[in-house]
Design goal:
Blueprint (H helix, E strand, L loop, with lengths): L1 E3 L13 H5 L13 H6 L9 H7 L3 E8 L44 E10 L3 E5 H4 L2 E7 L5 E10 L4 E6 L21 E6 L7 E12 L9 E4 L11 E3 L5 E9 L9 E5 H14 L5 E2 L2 E4 L3 H6 L12 E6 L4 H5 L6 E5 L2 E2 L3 H9 L6 E8 L2 E8 L1 E2 L22 E2 L4 E5 L2 H6 L9 E6 L4 H5 L6 E5 L2 E2 L3 H13 L4 E8 L2 E8 L10 E3 L2 E2 L2
Parallel strand pairs: 1-12
Antiparallel strand pairs: 2-3, 2-5, 3-4, 4-7, 5-6, 6-7, 8-9, 8-11, 9-10, 10-13, 11-12, 12-13, 14-21, 15-16, 15-29, 16-17, 17-18, 17-19, 19-20, 22-23, 23-24, 24-25, 25-26, 25-27, 27-28, 29-30
């Protein structure tokens, strides 16, 4: 079970006297003498009983045991087995309170076992679990609710959605569960989580849906169902059921300061599971649509500068900060400064929506895109292609053709601009075809400084106007100021990432800018 939003401080829990928690108060009425007639007359509402549902679905819920490969190292080189748990333990494995790992000195590597959960979705032995449960697995074993154990083959994994599909061979058709429609899930409805928390197989917990569409920064396509049904280490990969006994999610992550459930858990929606598992079963990999844009949220300053609605700009679409050369977006005529508001009729409120909607389009299929240009609504059909293995590498910033000024120029926003020379291009690690004006200095407490601009940023555009030199920049900024919107939007490149920065001309602090490339997190 992954922990979202890690914290440095641990939450201390105090044990309370159990009798004080479960004993009725002294003044409570004695209801033992109430017969059935009186109970009906008083119109008592019975507590929900999930026993029938659990009996029907539990045979399809499994435990997943994983022996990890040795000598696995984490991304940061800490040797944590590729995960975020204590050193030498598999991802999500709990640390025993009061027992430090390492025991005072180096140890010889021993085989490490991790446990998770899963569920059968086809009687032939197809099982869904989390990618982080089987990541770096040497062997995988599945244990059914009746105690039978089978070796499992990993058919495919998808780290971007944290899903994996396993296959076991049994001598008979296996009990299975159906995937429901997560689009019909609403906050407040009862849900049941099942799995193998802390190795306690067959555990059932109940709660309600707390919220929908949660982005916890775990991946580019986060749209989790938030629940308050307790889930803990080992629940990863287990099913989340609705009251019809259909799977509406895969329990995946928790928000916790203590390491255990505090009533905030997250599940991958079943509609995502359907789409991803279908591809993994068929080919062992997932193919996603690709548009070729870097997009970001819209701050109030950028909305004012670009002539966009200012009521709730952060929820009014995805602002295109850059277009990948040769991409479907470029072929369709989309430009930096356009704001995408819908894909195939689905409303786009932010870059995350855009990333998910485009990823769900079959490559080579047409995507109908609605967008705003200079505040005016437009539509275009885009022939989406297959997302490349490294979509970020496809972005090469090019502000367009044109000459460069020979002298630095200081702008009215508190910027000092200089030409992009070959030496500057090398220092900033920019491609040879990059053009623009280099920000060499920012006046302290100036509008540019308040907006967060930094020396080394490459200014490539003002609004939708490309900038190829300091002179271009000065003229474009002057034109934008004359428009009288109270803000100006500068398009920059910082450490290889393109984004708009809204500069307020009224003295107010600008909002933070978040940026993505077809859904990837920006700087």
């Amino acid at each position: 079970m992954r922990h979202s939003f890690p914290r440095a401080a641990a939450l201390s829990l105090a044990l309370l006297g159990s009798t004080a928690l479960i004993s009725p108060p002294a003044h409570a009425a004695d209801t033992s003498s109430l017969d059935a007639t009186k109970a009906v007359e008083k119109n008592y509402t019975p507590v929900p009983d999930f026993s029938g549902l659990v009996k029907n679905v539990s045979p399809a819920v499994v435990s997943v045991d994983v022996h990890l490969k040795l000598n696995q190292t984490s991304d940061d080189g800490s040797g944590n087995g590729g995960g975020n748990g204590p050193q030498g333990l598999p991802p999500g494995f709990p640390q025993i309170p009061g027992m430090p790992f390492g025991f005072g000195g180096p140890q010889q590597q021993q085989p490490v076992e991790a446990k998770g959960s899963g569920f059968v979705i086809d009687p032939s032995g197809i099982i869904v679990t989390n990618n982080h449960v089987v990541k770096d697995a040497r062997t995988v074993t599945v244990t059914m609710s009746d105690g039978n154990t089978y070796p499992a083959k990993v058919l495919g994994t998808d780290p971007k959605t944290d899903l994996a599909v396993l296959k076991i061979i049994a001598p008979h058709p296996l009990p299975f569960v159906e995937l429901g429609d997560s689009s019909s899930v609403v906050p407040g409805e009862w849900v049941i989580a099942m799995g193998n928390p802390f190795g306690l197989d067959g555990t059932v917990t109940a709660g309600i849906v707390s919220a929908l569409g949660r982005d916890i920064g775990d991946g580019p396509y986060d749209k989790f169902i938030q629940i308050d049904a307790p889930i803990n280490e080992g629940n990863s990969g287990g099913p989340l059921f609705d009251q019809k006994g259909e799977v509406i999610g895969v329990n995946t992550a928790i928000l916790s300061l203590s390491g255990g459930s505090v009533g905030i858990g997250f599940a991958i929606p079943s509609n995502t599971i359907k789409r991803i598992t279908t591809q993994l079963i068929a080919s062992g990999k997932v193919v996603r649509g690709y548009l070729g844009v870097a997009a970001q949220e819209i701050s109030p300053q950028m909305a004012a500068a670009l002539g966009l609605p200012t009521d709730n700009p952060a929820k009014d679409g995805a602002l295109i900060a850059a277009i990948s050369p040769g991409s479907p977006a470029e072929h369709a005529g989309l430009k930096a400064g356009d704001v995408i508001t819908a894909v195939n009729g689905l409303v786009v409120t932010n870059p995350g929506d855009l990333a998910a909607d485009i990823a769900n389009v079959d490559p080579q299929a047409k995507a109908d895109i609605s967008y705003l240009r200079n505040g005016k609504p437009q539509d275009v059909g885009v022939a989406v292609t297959t997302m490349p293995a490294n979509p970020d590498a496809a972005f090469q910033q090019n502000g367009g053709g044109g000459g460069q000024s020979a002298q630095p120029a200081q702008g009215p926003l508190g910027l000092t601009l200089a030409p992009l020379t070959p030496d500057a291009r090398n220092q900033l690690n920019l491609p040879n075809n990059a053009t623009g004006a280099v920000i060499t200095a920012v006046v302290q407490n100036s509008p540019a400084d308040v907006a967060g601009l930094q020396p080394g940023d490459l200014l490539v555009g003002v609004g939708a106007t490309d900038v190829n030199s300091p002179t271009d920049a000065v003229n474009a900024i002057a034109s934008a100021r004359k428009a009288g919107t109270g803000a100006v939007a500068l398009r920059i490149v910082r450490q290889g990432q393109a984004l708009f920065v809204g500069i307020d001309l009224t003295g107010k602090d600008p909002s933070q800018n978040s940026q993505s490339q077809d859904g990837s997190n920006g700087p």
